[in-house]
Every structure is written in structure tokens, then in C-alpha cells.
Known about the structure:
This protein is mainly α. The protein has one domain: Cytochrome c-like domain (Cytochrome Bc1 Complex, Chain D, domain 2, Orthogonal Bundle). It has helices at residues 2-14, 23-29, 75-82, 89-97, 99-107, 123-132, and strands at residues 39-41, 44-47. Strands 1-2 form a two-stranded antiparallel ribbon. The two termini are 16 Å apart.
Amino acid sequence: MTKMFALTAAALLATTSAYAGDAVKGEKDMKKCKACHTVENGDDVIFKGGKTGPNLYGVIGRTAGTEESFTKYGDDLVAVGAAGLVWTEELLVEYVQDPKKFLSAQLDTAAKSKMSFKLKDASDVAAYLASVGPAVEEMPVEDMPTEDAAPAE
């Protein structure tokens, strides 16, 4: 779990609004995702798509496996979320490239993913999702917990 927290913290520090992806191109690339995913903020449909996968509105900055209206997450995705993984653009790109491999690396064991689709380069899609979601504030370095810190109760 410490490994995952350190990776998530490092990714949060490395990810800013100036991420390498192109949000305009990402909106076009979302067509590859719409069979399973929608992007909706309440009644406001930003990108119409399927409901086989979770709504991707606010995915950047959200704990993995916790979108409230979606109940069909795989156990391993829920496990990485329970261990503290919060989606950043960088982590989402890595996940979409190979979901099973990503989860296996995070859990340090064999893992399964309900998402079988792989996208070689999802940096533009991640930038698009960050641009249409709520603003994610960057945590100041001095507020980042360290590996030695006692867990919050």
C-alpha cells in the first residue's frame, strides 16, 4: 500500500493543467470510449455515450472505483481505490493503455479488469476529461503525507 500511495503522490505532483495531452483532440478521441462511457454532470450531458462503464465526469481527481452511480466495478479496481489511488491524467493514461497490467502493478499481484479495451495513447482523452470536469486543486508539497507519517484516523 505504501508503494501505491507513493506512486499516486508522485503522479499528483507531476500532473498539472499543462499536461502533454491536447483536450481538443481528446474530445474527438472520446468517440472510441463512448460505447461504454458517458460524461455527464447531473442533467448536463457533456459527451453522450453508453453506461456499461462509469460516467467519466470528474474522473481526474476521483478515487478509483468510487463513481457513485456506477455499481459494476471489478474487485481489483475497487481495491486500488480503497488503497488510496486517485486518478490523475498520467495514471489514467497508464491504466487505459493496459488495464489488467496497470492493476497488477498497483496491487503487486495478478489482477483482473472488467475493462478489456486498450488505447495506445490516451493522453489527449485524459486532457479532455480534465478540461470538462471540475477543477482539481493541486495539493501543496508541504501538505503531502510521507511514508513515515501515521495514518489519519
